[in-house]
Structure formats: structure tokens, C-alpha cells
Design brief:
The structure holds two protein chains of two kinds. By secondary structure, chain A is mainly alpha-helical. Chain A has 14 helices and no strands. Chain A starts with a helix and ends in a 6-residue tail after the last helix. Chain A has two domains: 44 residues, no CATH class; 204 residues, MetI-like fold (Orthogonal Bundle). Helices cover 73% and strands 0% of the residues of chain A. In chain A, helix 10 runs antiparallel to helix 13 and helix 10 packs across helix 14. Chain B is mainly alpha-helical. Chain B has 15 helices and two strands. In chain B, helix 11 packs antiparallel against helix 12 and helix 14 packs antiparallel against helix 15. Classes of the chains: A mainly alpha, B mainly alpha. At the A-B interface, helix 1, helix 2, helix 5, helix 6 and helix 7 of A face helix 1, helix 2, helix 3, helix 5 and helix 6 of B. Chain B: It comes from Streptomyces liliifuscus.
Chain lengths: 295, 321
């Protein structure tokens, strides 16, 4: 392709680019010019993450150079240092708070979603919107009373405090998501099963279960992500025993004596569970993030 | 609202002998699975808000014990007249409006691109959603230290490399966060929220009925016209949803402000959540913090009302489908 063609491609591509169904079956293709633009944008967005991971495999001396040294020797030292002592208890607290609160959310949300979809109670849409409205209360407005109550109850610096708060934080999302998945169970089959005299356990196991399983997994994933990343409550309600991974990271805020490579290793390490889970379940992610309003 | 959920069969299967009692028992059996979640949510989310309302009417600084007393609405008077809080409100609006609008525009562009086939599209999508998955505190630290740092950050490092490439001795040493604190926070947040907008808009694009587009093409509509008159109106509710959900989350931004600028320099980047946090844990003025919290809730309710209406319209479509 000549230089001239490469320059002209995006402009002539615009028309094609905005048109769907150019060829039969599947969405139309991007022109080479727009493909280039798409990849450029993608790499621009990914660059900070790539930089973080790259730096995490360097020695401190190689990390803090100007201009940056891309090809300094690789090392696992930073990860060894982190896992050797500092970060492990924080990761364990994070894992405990996220996993237990996710299980609690599912235990509460699945029956609720059942009551709101398969055999809807009267005024079920009002109940749905009540759940949702609690998500719109800014956490900061609840922090003070929660802090005072937790302090009075002697529950400061306790993982269970975070578990309860994270459960409340994610429950509305989970109810919405699970309802949207359960609503996909075909009503005809449910009715047929009931006419045939199938009991509730059979209906749940044989009919609802298989349809709802992927939704259950997606809901769990979203709850896990939000709990794992939560910062406001964790930093204000925990001190030494119950601090989670984001609180560990806060130790890197000051500029003085900063260990950049170690910071990058820590940031990579704490982001990893969510990255892997999110990459694996990208299709379900959007449905969770939009509370099931968008498929 | 009309629902097409069929009338429950179970009621018909067992004709009630004692209509009143049977029905009540039946209703409660049906409600029962809902109750644990409902009660838990009311207790853990509504009670603190009631407590906030009460505390907001108290003069209460824990550095002055024994001076706690009812003070009526004076905390609210303070909230509405205090210079710092007014700055915080303004900063919150600037921060939220710029992050949401910029990430929406970028997200729309990326979604339009990713809606088409191109080599490596799946991989590109995976890489693009990554910023949203990185832990927010980790992302904020990454921007603060690895990118904005004047001495060894990626931005100045790249500038430096470019300067050397063109023969200059050294690049400039710009302290990005001190020089332009608000843009620094906005850029970091836009980076994080663009994938969110992209995901929602991409879902919207892919829910677009193909036959309508086909018909437009057959009728000879230009690509631009198709986009302007068919795709954009179709996307409207997805754009609204993205803007409103984004607004709800970005208004609450705490991690990025706490980490990148700590509200500074001065109070240039202090948003409401951070200001309330300072009032609570630095000034220990509990009454003022609570009153500010109530004001934030009222502001959120205004935004949420629109959000709920949007979600309700999407929801209605689904239910009546």
C-alpha cells in the first residue's frame, strides 16, 4: 500500500465503517485504516497495565531510570519479597472478606430473586427498585454511623465487619442480576412440571438450576470483584488485624523512599484475581455491571 | 406497568376451602424467600442513614467530649455556607462531569470499532477492559508513581526519550500532579471508566435489530444517516444508562483522590467524599460530616431518580417482551 493510500484509507473507511451487514452473516469488517486505529487505541489503554507488569519484574535500580529502561534484566525478586513477609496476611483478609461475603450474598439473593421472578410476589417491581435505590446511597454518607456502631460493638479491625458491609453493598446488585437470569427460565416448562406434580426441590434442581447456573457464577464474580476492590470501608474500619489488600497498597502513597518496582509488583499481585476472573467472564461482565438491565 | 407473567397456577390447582386464611398463608410462603434479603438490606443500609440524619442535628466534636448537644439545622447552615464545602461541591461536579462525558465519548468510539470484525478483535476487547479490572487503588498508585512521577514516571520518561531522539540534552521535568492536579485525576479516572462505557454501548450495538439496518440500507440511506437516525436513537437508552451508572459511581470517587492528590494542592481536587472523610477523621466534626453526608444523599437521589427512570424503561421493555 502506498503512503497515499494509507492516509486516504480512514476517510474512505468512514462510510464503510458506519455500515453494518456489508457482507452476509456477522458484522462487517473494519478497513485496514480503522483496524490500525482500533489497535492503537487498545494499546494506548493497555500501556499503563503493561508498564506496571513490566516494572514489577525489574530491580528497583532499573525501574526508576529516566528514560525508562524497557529491557532491563527480569527478576522475580519483588514478588518474592512481597510474598515472603508483608502482603500475605492482607491477601488472606481480602480473600476471606470477598469469598465469605460473596457466599452470603448468594445465600440471600438467590431465594429473593426466586421470589421476585419465578413466583413473583405482588408489587415485586417496587421491591426491586427498593433494592436498587440502596445502591444509590453514597457509601461515604453511611461511613460515620457505621464507624460509630462498629466501634461501640467492639468490631473495629475485624474481618467480619467488612463481610457484613460487603454483603449489604453487593446484595442489591446480586438480586437484580439473579432475577434477570431466573426470568429466563421458560414459564411453560415450569408450568408443565407443576402439572406433572413435580415438587419444589425437583423443579429447582432439574429446571431452574441448569438455566440459572451461569448466572449464579456471573453474580458471584461481580460480587467478588467489588468486595476485593473495596477501599473506603477497609481503610477506615480496619487497622492491623483485618486490613485488606487495598489497605496494604496505601503504604505506597508517599513519594519518599518509594520502591517503584515493588509497588508495581504489589499492584499487579492484588489486581491479578480480578483480572483473571474478569477476562474469563467478559461476556457476563456487562450484564452484571448494568445490574442485568443490559444483556 | 403491564406484566405478562402468567397468574400463578398453584392457586388454581388447590381451590381454597377457607379463602382468607389459605391465601394469607400462601402469600407468606411466597414472600418468605424474599424476607432475609429484605430485612438484611433494611437493617444494614437504612438504619445508618437514619443515624446520619440524627447525628446531623448534633453539635459533636469528639475532641470536645461532653459538649455534644442538639443544634437544630445549624450544621446544614454551615454546609451551605462553608467555603471548603462549596469548593468540594464544585470539584465533585467538575470531576464527575468531565470523567463521565469524556469516557462516554471515548467509550462510544471504541464500542463502534469493536462492533466490527477486525483481526484480533477478541484480544483487543480483553486488553481494553483491563483498566476497569485493575484494583482502583492500585490503578491510582500506578498513575501517581509510575506515570506522573516527575523523576522516573513514564510520561516524563517518554518525553525525555523523545528529546534525546531529536538531539536535545534532556527533556523537561514536569510535575504533572502538582501542576495540573484535576486533569491528572480526571485522566486516571477516564482511563478506568472508558471500558465500562464501552462494554455497555457494545452490548447496545449488538442488541440492534439487523433487519431495520438492512431496510435502511435497501432504502438507500447513507451510512451517516443510518448512524444518526437509527443507531444513535437506539443507543440512546444505553448511553443514558452508562452516563447515569457512571455518574453514581464517579460522584463517590474516593480511592483516586485519596491516593493521587490527597485533595491537594490546597483543596483543588478535594471532592465531597474526600471532604467528608477529612471532616470526620481529621477535624472530628461528626455533626458537620453527617450534615454534608445528608446533602450528598439528597444530590444522589436527584441523579438516581433519573437513573431509575432509565433503568425502569429498559426493565419494562424486558418484562413486556
Amino acid at each position: 500500500m502506498t503512503a497515499h493510500a494509507a492516509v486516504a484509507a480512514p476517510r474512505s473507511g468512514l462510510r464503510k465503517f458506519l455500515r453494518r451487514k456489508d457482507d452476509h452473516g456477522g458484522p462487517p469488517r473494519l478497513t485496514p485504516g480503522w483496524t490500525f486505529a482500533a489497535w492503537l487505541a487498545t494499546l494506548a489503554f493497555f500501556a499503563p497495565v503493561a508498564w506496571m507488569v513490566l516494572t514489577s519484574f525489574h530491580q528497583e535500580a532499573d525501574a526508576a531510570t529516566n528514560p525508562p529502561s524497557l529491557l532491563a534484566p527480569f527478576t522475580l525478586d519483588q514478588y518474592e519479597l512481597l510474598l515472603g513477609r508483608d502482603i500475605t496476611p492482607y491477601l488472606l483478609n481480602s480473600a476471606m472478606a470477598s469469598v465469605i461475603s460473596t457466599l452470603l450474598v448468594l445465600a440471600l439473593a438467590v431465594p429473593a430473586a426466586y421470589a421476585l421472578s419465578i413466583k413473583p410476589v405482588e408489587k415485586w417491581t417496587d421491591v426491586m427498585f427498593f433494592f436498587l435505590s440502596t445502591k444509590f446511597l453514597p457509601a461515604i454518607a453511611a461511613l460515620l454511623p457505621v464507624y460509630l456502631i462498629v466501634k461501640d460493638a467492639g468490631m473495629l479491625d475485624n474481618v467480619w465487619t467488612l463481610i457484613i458491609l460487603y454483603t449489604a453493598m453487593n446484595l442489591p446488585i446480586a438480586v437484580w442480576m439473579m432475577r434477570s437470569f431466573l426470568a429466563e427460565v421458560p414459564k411453560e416448562i415450569l408450568e408443565a412440571a407443576e402439572v406433572d406434580g413435580a415438587g419444589l426441590p425437583t423443579v429447582l434442581l432439574r429446571i431452574v438450576g441448569p438455566v440459572a447456573m451461569p448466572g449464579l457464577a456471573a453474580t458471584a464474580l461481580i460480587c467478588f470483584i467489588f468486595s476485593w476492590n473495596e477501599f473506603l470501608f477497609a481503610v477506615n474500619l480496619t487497622a492491623t488485624n483485618a486490613s485488606t489488600a487495598p489497605v496494604f497498597l496505601v503504604g505506597f502513597i508517599t513519594n519518599e523512599g518509594l520502591f517503584l518496582a515493588r509497588l508495581c509488583a504489589a499492584a499487579t499481585l492484588v489486581s491479578l484475581p480480578v483480572l483473571i476472573a474478569g477476562w474469563a467472564a467478559q461476556d457476563k461482565l456487562v450484564r452484571g455491571l448494568s445490574l442485568g438491565a443490559v444483556k | 406497568m403491564t406484566t405478562l407473567i402468567p397468574a400463578p397456577k398453584a392457586v388454581r390447582a388447590h381451590p381454597p376451602h377457607q379463602p382468607g386464611r389459605r391465601e394469607t398463608v400462601h402469600k407468606w410462603r411466597r414472600r418468605f424467600p424474599l424476607l432475609p434479603a429484605l430485612i438484611f438490606t433494611v437493617v444494614v443500609t437504612q438504619l445508618p442513614f437514619v443515624a446520619t440524619l440524627i447525628i446531623s442535628t448534633l453539635q459533636w466534636n469528639i475532641l470536645k467530649p461532653g459538649e455534644r448537644h442538639f443544634t437544630g439545622l445549624s450544621n446544614y447552615a454551615f454546609v451551605f455556607t462553608d467555603e471548603r464545602l462549596r469548593t468540594a461541591v464544585l470539584n465533585t461536579i467538575v470531576l464527575t462531569a468531565s470523567v463521565v462525558s469524556i469516557s462516554m465519548v471515548l467509550g462510544l468510539g471504541l464500542a463502534l470499532l469493536l462492533d466490527r470484525r477486525f483481526p484480533g478483535r477478541g484480544l483487543a476487547r480483553t486488553l481494553l477492559i483491563t483498566p476497569f479490572l485493575v484494583m482502583p487503588v492500585a490503578a491510582a498508585l500506578l498513575w501517581k508513581h509510575a506515570i506522573y512521577n516527575p523523576d522516573y514516571g513514564l510520561l516524563n520518561g517518554t518525553l525525555n526519550a523523545l528529546y534525546r531522539l531529536f538531539g536535545a540534552e534532556n527533556g523537561p521535568t514536569i510535575d504533572w500532579v502538582s501542576n495540573s492536579a484535576m486533569p491528572a485525576v480526571v485522566v486516571a479516572l477516564v482511563w478506568q471508566w472508558t471500558p465500562f462505557m464501552m462494554l455497555i454501548l457494545l452490548a447496545g450495538l449488538q442488541a440492534q435489530p439487523g433487519d431495520v439496518l438492512e431496510a435502511a440500507r435497501v432504502d438507500g440511506a447513507s451510512a451517516m444517516a443510518t448512524f444518526r437516525f437509527i443507531t444513535l436513537p437506539h443507543l440512546r437508552q444505553y448511553i443514558e444508562l452508562g452516563v447515569l451508572l457512571g455518574t453514581i459511581y464517579v460522584v463517590q470517587t474516593f480511592d483516586a483522590v485519596f491516593t493521587i492528590t490527597q485533595g491537594g494542592p490546597g483543596s483543588q481536587t478535594t471532592n465531597l467524599p474526600y471532604e467528608i472523610y477529612l471532616t470526620m477523621f481529621r477535624k472530628y466534626e461528626y455533626g458537620e460530616a453527617a450534615a454534608a453526608g445528608v446533602v450528598v444523599v439528597i444530590g444522589s437521589i436527584v441523579v438516581a431518580t433519573f437513573a431509575l427512570r432509565t433503568i425502569a424503561s429498559l426493565f419494562r421493555e424486558e418484562v413486556s417482551r
